[in-house]
Design brief:
Helix content of chain A: 25-40%
Oligomer: homodimer
Distance between the termini of chain A: 5 Å
Strand content of chain A: 25-35%
CATH superfamily of the largest domain in chain A: Ribonuclease Z/Hydroxyacylglutathione hydrolase-like
Radius of gyration of chain A: 22 Å
Number of strands of chain A: 18
Strand order of the largest sheet of chain A: 6-5-4-3-2-1-18
Chain lengths: 301, 301
């Protein structure tokens, strides 16, 4: 899994920072997560292959998380897209995008499919043979979901030495990878455990932005390999969190600690601070494995 | 009058070019004309004082001319704006912007006033003591207006030598600037012409984008000091103009010639050409005073 941060600053775009957007490469998918203004330019800047994006997940309908979506949808049309585009986001997103396209008499020439969300509990919103995506209900000023991206278990790995030793026929390999026993030329059954090795552990990534400190998400994101949790403020401004429904770096770290995740990526920084290193320092006091998101930065999970 | 081009390329924003937006400084006003995605970042990049913008003119509701508007309106709120913001644009713009703000529960805390346009003939849409703005009905795929910005006549300039020679009292100066005669201490009337000099000629700027070649605009923009006319294509692609309702550089120059304008600025270039110099070359064959718009470039009119 590879995560690329296209933008990770809160509020208004500036010449040198961008609002929230991320690209997650997971198995054969390229998922776009949130789409602040300028996302399509960031996609170009970091040479992401536009056409591979088939699923866009929008956390909430604040401008810094979705004002880039009408433009990206239009650009796909201008680039001659033909394949389906699926948009997952809060109820209302379909009406908003549809109105913008209607006003410009600019309907897409590819299928644009909206999956509007309004559930209060975590729900499965996407699934195929390799990946699942669940919502993570967050508490913000408007209806908001994070998203939990999980790889499904890989097939078991063939133990080449063992299958050669037992002279197992190649025609059985796929079944063995999926858990079957093998049979030798002489009809002797060999257990799957003797013919295979453990596959890589499937990974998971939890995206949580924007949200106030909210422990109810802990069971949903428990043991995720990587957690992105917003940290708009430092503890010195913690009283702003209640009104704005944002979190501090320390609170993000507390959630990471309680959920026992593999690592924590901080982001959605208020632009009032002179260095984002301050967020890392604060979080490290609570949780050991902290990374800082920054525009253009990539993480291998 | 000073015109700053924030973006002047057609279709999709790229890392090095921006969709249409311009800032016009005219008398005491700073007008924003069109607002493609990323305009607020361009405003920052070229250090335009945001807060001075009180009037935004939107030609039409294609994305490359207005998808930056929701973000700019939101940013004004975040920056604590209190003064009125007037938006002039096609019918439907109010519903679109209002829906976006409603979905984010992000109403402005300053007065946001929409002036929706649907007239087919040129009309006065803004006027004060110093400036007037008329629409220029254009012919494009959707309802579109250009805008004609005109300075009102300046007051006459006091001829300092003459008023001193005639010992005209200072209390009469304002009246004289506005056309009155002067009266000496001895009660002798001195004609206004003898006490004043001609003021600078009021200037005008016509913005015409997007449009197919359309001679009906010629009487409206006749004798404008500067004309911005879209030139999406070169003559080699002229057959695309009919379907897309755009113009070639040559057609823009023909309009400039027929309207006898002071100068022509080309823009809204298709990104298919390797150099925008080709547009200038083509237009110069028809009209002598041609300039090329480019992102960040300023023109004094």
């Amino acid at each position: 899994m590879k995560l690329t941060i296209l933008g990770c600053y809160s509020a208004t775009p500036r010449t040198f920072t961008n609002p929230t957007s991320q690209v997650l490469e997971i198995r054969n998918h390229l998922f776009l997560i949130d789409c602040g203004e300028g996302t399509q330019v960031q996609l170009r800047k970091y040479k992401v292959k536009f056409s591979r994006i088939k699923h866009i997940f929008i956390s909430h309908l604040h401008g810094d998380h979705f004002f880039g979506l009408p433009g990206l949808i239009s650009t796909f049309r201008l680039l001659g897209r033909e394949s389906e585009l699926h948009i997952y986001g809060p109820k209302g997103i379909k009406e908003a995008i549809t109105l913008f396209l209607k006003l410009g008499d600019s309907w897409t020439n590819y299928p644009l499919i909206f999956h509007e969300l309004n559930a209060k509990d975590s729900e499965l919103v996407f699934e195929d043979e390799q990946v699942s995506v669940h919502t993570i209900p967050l508490e913000h000023r408007v209806y908001t979901n994070g998203f939990l991206f999980k790889e499904k278990p890989y097939p078991r790995k063939l133990n080449i030495d063992a299958v050669e030793e037992h002279e197992i026929d190649r025609s059985q390999f796929n079944n063995i990878k999926n858990g079957a026993s093998g049979v030798t030329e002489n009809g002797v059954s060999i257990s799957n455990a003797d013919l295979t090795l453990d596959p890589p552990k499937p990974k998971s990534y939890a995206f949580c932005s924007d949200t106030i400190y909210n422990e109810t998400i802990v069971p949903i994101i428990a043991n995720a390999d990587m957690l992105y949790h917003e940290s708009t403020f430092l503890e010195t401004e913690s009283k702003l969190c209640k009104k704005t429904k944002h979190s501090t770096a320390k609170q993000a770290a507390l959630i990471a600690q309680k959920a026992d995740v593999g690592g924590l990526i901080l982001g959605h920084y208020s632009t009032r601070y002179k260095s984002i290193d301050l967020f890392k320092e604060e979080a490290l006091e609570v949780f050991p494995n902290v990374e800082l998101a920054d525009d253009g930065k990539s993480f291998t999970i």
